[in-house]
């Protein structure tokens, strides 16, 4: 990959541990004149930047300080037009709930060359680090990744939770800590059995990582009791019991 002056590279930083950064991401960070970085992007990755690289934090803290997306788009274009090698470092993968698509479109619209380096998404890595495979032969033949940012029934959400309850595949919920009671109630109401295993993985790929194992019926209460906070991922389905409880595939 080339990192030419006047271009933007959208870089997936993985779930938080620098060991989960790709080689491409590392090369991009070392080549960068300016890096606009998120809160969930691995902080240690910034140590790879040159001493004269400009580091611009544009993270969005839940219910806290936030750089509007339009401002991030504007900064990307402005730095690129000034002839800099621009890197946009994001947590996980830029195109999985990362608004990387919007940043790509803003660059294209402004005539700025843009490329992407995909990252290890937390939607698969967080369960994996907790010993939960999102698929497992003869147990789960697929997985669906959804946002729990808004609750079921909210006009801003078009997730069909009732349909999800019937897919017979693993459900992976991002940004779903706050509305876990509403989400699990909706899935139960749609017929997903109470005793289906469920797990919450908090702060995966960090020293603070915690895993709460429960069932669909109990996971929301268990998460509150454990004081689980974002970032966290909820996994629902037989695989959520974890590999040590799953029978070897036949
Ligand atoms: C705005 S989304 C960004 C997802 C990211 N682009 C990705 O591919 O992983 C943020 C959500 O991702 C999940 N997440 C990101 N990093 C995580 C981590 N280290 N541990 C657990 N969940 C994480 C949480 O659900 C969090 O609320």
Set down the secondary structure blueprint:
Elements: E1 8-12, H1 23-31, E2 34-37, E3 54-57, H2 69-81, E4 86-90, H3 100-109, E5 114-117, H4 122-129, E6 143-147, H5 161-165, E7 170-174, H6 180-189, E8 197-202, E9 210-215, H7 219-225, E10 232-236
Parallel strand pairs: 1-4, 1-5, 2-3, 2-4, 6-7
Antiparallel strand pairs: 7-10, 8-9, 8-10
The structure holds S-adenosylmethionine.
Briefly characterize the structure.
This protein has helices spanning 23-31, 69-81, 100-109, 122-129, 161-165, 180-189, 219-225, and strands at 8-12, 34-37, 54-57, 86-90, 114-117, 143-147, 170-174, 197-202, 210-215, 232-236. The chain has 250 residues and is α/β, with parallel strands linked by helices.
């Amino acid at each position: 990959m080339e990192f030419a002056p006047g271009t933007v590279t959208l870089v997936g930083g993985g779930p938080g541990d620098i060991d989960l950064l790709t080689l491409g991401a590392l090369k991009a960070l070392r080549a960068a004149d300016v890096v606009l970085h998120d809160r969930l992007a691995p902080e240690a990755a910034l140590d790879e930047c040159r001493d004269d690289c400009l580091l611009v934090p544009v993270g969005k803290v839940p219910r806290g300080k936030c750089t509007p997306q339009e401002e991030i788009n504007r900064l990307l274009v402005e730095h690129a037009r000034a002839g800099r090698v621009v890197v946009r470092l994001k947590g996980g993968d830029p195109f999985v709930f990362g608004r990387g698509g919007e940043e790509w479109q803003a660059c294209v619209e402004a005539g700025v060359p843009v490329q992407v380096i995909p990252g290890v998404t937390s939607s698969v890595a967080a369960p994996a680090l907790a010993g939960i495979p999102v698929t497992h032969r003869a147990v789960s033949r697929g997985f669906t990744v959804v946002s729990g940012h808004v609750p079921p029934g909210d006009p801003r959400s078009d997730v069909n939770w009732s349909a999800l309850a019937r897919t017979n595949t693993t459900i992976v919920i991002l940004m779903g800590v706050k509305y876990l009671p509403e989400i699990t109630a909706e899935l139960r109401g749609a017929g997903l059995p109470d005793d289906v295993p469920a797990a919450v993985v908090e702060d995966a790929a960090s020293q603070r990582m915690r895993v709460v194992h429960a069932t669909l019926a109990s996971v929301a209460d268990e998460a509150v009791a454990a004081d689980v906070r974002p970032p966290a991922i909820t996994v629902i389905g037989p695989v959520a019991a974890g590999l040590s409880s799953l029978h070897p595939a036949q």
